[in-house]
Design goal:
The protein has 511 residues and is an alpha+beta fold. The chain folds into three domains: 161 residues, 2-Layer Sandwich (Beta-Lactamase); 138 residues, GAF domain (Beta-Lactamase); 175 residues, Orthogonal Bundle (Hypothetical protein af1432). The chain has 17 helices and twelve strands. The longest helix is centred in the middle third of the chain and has 45 residues. It starts with a helix and ends in a 6-residue tail after the last helix. 38% of the residues are buried. It binds fe (ii) ion. The site of fe (ii) ion (FE2) has 5 residues, from loops.
Length: 511
C-alpha cells in the first residue's frame, strides 16, 4: 500500500472509530464534520442541508460560528450551490477571486474565506441531492486531492445517515470498489443474517449477480463469524476445520485464503458478515483485516439503513392495504376501485417513463385518492343511480376530505405530497373541477394522471348493478374531455398503455 493510501486509510479508520462511538443520530453529522475538519486541518467545517421546498441551503452544523447566526444560502448562489447543482467536488484556492463565490456569508459571519473545498451529498440509489459539506481555510496550504477523497467518503457516510434510507445495493458495491483499490482480491460477498430461518443470505456476491445465495448460519467461516461476532483471517482455507468445503466441491471454485468480518449495527448486534476470498498476490495480512474492518463499518451502515427502510416500507404498505380495504368496506359498490385506479395510473406513468421514486408516490396517492369517502353519508355513497344536486354537492366533499384526513398522516419525505395529489383528482384543466377549481398548471401532474385513470376505471369496471362499458366507448367519452378536463399527453399515454399489454393486464373485455 502506498504511503498516501495508508494515511487515507488511517483517517478513514479514525472517522469510523468516532462514528462507532456516537450513538445519537442527531449528533452524528456534527461528529463527522468535526472529525473531517480536524483531520484535514481545516479552519472551519459546515454541513449544509437542502430545503427542497424553499430551494435554500441551511447550515445544520457550522463549526466556529455562533449558533444564533443562521446561515441560509439560496441554492443558486455561491460555490456550495454550484457544487450541489453540478454534483461535483469543488476545490478552490482563492475563493474571493472565484466568479461564483458568494461573499454574503463572510459578511454575515465576519470571516474571510481563502481556500475552500465543497462536496455534494448525494443519496445513493435515486441520486437526489441532500446537501453538501464545506471545508474552509486549510491551515497548511491548499486542500489536496487526498482531502477531496476523504471529504467525498464523509459525504457518502452522511448520505447513508441523512437520506430516506432508500439505499440499494449500489451503496455496498461502492464500498467494495473502494476496497479493491487497496487489496487485490478475487471475490467479495456480503451476507445478511436471516435470524428467523437461521441463515445467511447474500445481498451482494461478486461473480454471482442475480443468484439466490443463502446458507446455513451454523456452517462455514461466514457462519462462525456471524455467530461469534469476531473477525477471522484464514491463511489456508482447506486446512481450517471451520471451513465448509462443500461449496468449492459443488462449484469447482478453489478457495485458498479468506478474510471475514462481522457487520454490526449501532447497538453492536451482528447484522451480517462481509467475506473476501483469495488475495491474488499471496495471503491476506493483519493490515488487510484492519482495512476490511474499516470498510465493514460503512457497509454495516448501508445494510442497517436498508433493513430499517425495508421494515418501514413493509409497515407502510400494510397500513396502505388496510386503508384501501377500509374504503372498500365503506363503499362496497365500487370495491377494488382504488387499487385498479392505481394499476391504470402505474400503466400510464410507465409509458411516460416515470422514475421508481415518482412511481411509488403516484401509486400511493392513487390508492388513497378517494379516502375522503369514508366521511360521506351512506345514503349518498351507496345510492345506485344518479345523485340529485344536493347529494352530488355532498359527494363532492370527499375530495377535500381526502386532503384533511391524509394531511394528518406523517408521511415520510418521499410521500409528503400524497394528500395534495390525492385531493386534486377531480380538478379539471379548464378550472371547472373541485374542490378548488384549479386550472391546468396549478393541478399537480400526478393528479391529472389519477383523474384520467379514475374515470377510465369507473367507466369500464363491472358493478353489480351494471356492466362495464367497452374500452373503445370509454375512450371516446374521455376523448371528448381532452383539453377541458383531461391532459392530452396523459390520455395518449393511456391509449399506448392499453395497446401495449395494458388491456390484458387490466383484464378488460375486448368488446
Ligand atoms: Fe373521487
Amino acid at each position: 500500500m502506498a504511503d498516501q493510501d495508508r494515511r487515507h486509510f488511517a483517517l478513514l479508520l479514525e472517522i469510523q472509530r468516532r462514528l462507532s462511538q456516537e450513538r445519537s443520530m442527531a449528533r452524528l453529522p456534527g461528529v463527522v464534520m468535526q472529525t473531517v475538519g480536524e483531520l484535514m486541518d481545516a479552519d472551519r467545517s459546515t454541513l449544509f442541508l437542502l430545503d427542497a421546498e424553499t430551494m435554500e441551503l441551511r447550515a445544520c452544523f457550522a463549526q466556529g460560528v455562533a449558533a444564533d447566526k443562521a446561515i441560509v444560502v439560496p441554492l443558486r448562489m455561491g460555490l456550495i450551490g454550484t457544487a450541489i447543482l453540478q454534483r461535483r467536488t469543488l476545490n478552490v484556492l482563492n475563493a474571493w477571486q472565484h466568479p461564483f463565490f458568494f461573499a454574503d456569508i463572510d459578511g454575515v459571519t465576519g470571516y474571510r474565506t481563502d481556500s475552500l473545498l465543497v462536496v455534494p451529498i448525494v443519496q445513493p440509489g435515486d441520486g437526489r441531492v441532500l446537501g453538501g459539506l464545506e471545508l474552509l481555510n486549510k491551515r497548511s496550504g491548499r486542500f489536496t486531492p487526498e482531502d477531496e477523497t476523504i471529504a467525498e467518503d464523509a459525504a457518502h457516510w452522511l448520505a447513508a445517515r441523512l437520506g430516506d434510507g432508500d439505499i440499494d445495493a449500489r451503496a455496498i458495491e461502492d464500498k467494495l470498489e473502494a476496497l479493491r483499490k487497496w487489496i487485490d482480491f478475487d471475490r467479495a460477498t456480503v451476507f445478511r443474517v436471516d435470524a428467523e430461518h437461521g441463515r445467511l443470505v447474500a445481498v451482494h456476491a461478486d461473480g454471482a449477480a442475480g443468484l439466490d445465495i443463502s446458507m446455513n448460519m451454523r456452517l462455514g467461516i461466514a457462519g462462525f463469524v456471524a455467530m461469534t461476532g469476531e473477525p477471522l483471517l484464514i491463511p489456508e482455507a482447506h486446512a481450517d476445520a471451520r471451513f465448509d468445503a462443500s461449496h468449492d466441491r459443488r462449484t469447482g471454485y478453489h478457495t485458498r485464503n479468506l478474510l471475514c468480518v462481522p457487520l454490526k449495527d449501532s447497538a453492536g448486534e451482528v447484522l451480517g458478515v462481509i467475506q473476501v476470498i483469495n488475495r491474488r498476490d499471496g495471503t491476506f495480512t493483519a493490515g488487510d483485516l484492519d482495512l476490511l474492518s474499516c470498510v465493514a463499518g460503512a457497509v454495516a451502515i448501508a445494510l442497517e439503513n436498508a433493513i430499517l427502510f425495508e421494515e418501514s416500507e413493509r409497515q407502510f404498505r400494510s397500513l396502505l392495504d388496510t386503508l384501501a380495504a377500509s374504503i372498500d368496506a365503506r363503499d362496497c359498490l365500487t370495491a377494488g376501485h382504488s387499487l385498479r385506479v392505481a394499476q391504470v395510473a402505474r400503466g400510464i406513468a410507465g409509458v411516460l417513463e416515470f422514475m421508481d421514486h415518482d412511481m411509488d408516490l403516484l401509486e400511493v396517492a392513487a390508492i388513497l385518492h378517494d379516502y375522503g369517502k369514508i366521511g360521506v353519508d351512506d345514503a349518498v355513497l351507496k345510492k345506485e343511480g344518479k345523485l340529485d344536486a344536493e347529494e352530488f354537492g355532498h359527494m363532492k366533499t370527499h375530495a377535500s376530505m381526502s386532503f384533511d384526513i391524509l394531511d394528518r398522516i406523517r408521511f415520510s419525505r418521499k410521500y409528503r405530497s400524497v394528500p395534495l395529489i390525492a385531493a386534486s383528482h377531480h380538478e379539471n384543466l379548464d378550472g371547472s373541477g373541485y374542490p378548488r377549481g384549479l386550472k391546468d398548471h396549478e393541478i399537480p401532474f400526478m393528479s391529472k394522471i389519477i383523474s384520467v385513470a379514475d374515470v377510465f376505471e369507473a367507466l369500464t369496471a363491472d358493478r353489480h348493478y351494471r356492466q362495464g362499458m367497452p374500452v373503445a366507448q370509454a375512450l371516446e367519452i374521455i376523448d371528448r374531455g381532452v383539453g377541458t378536463k383531461f391532459d392530452a399527453h396523459i390520455v395518449a399515454a393511456l391509449k399506448r398503455y392499453l395497446g401495449n399489454g395494458g388491456h390484458a393486464e387490466l383484464g378488460l373485455k375486448t368488446e
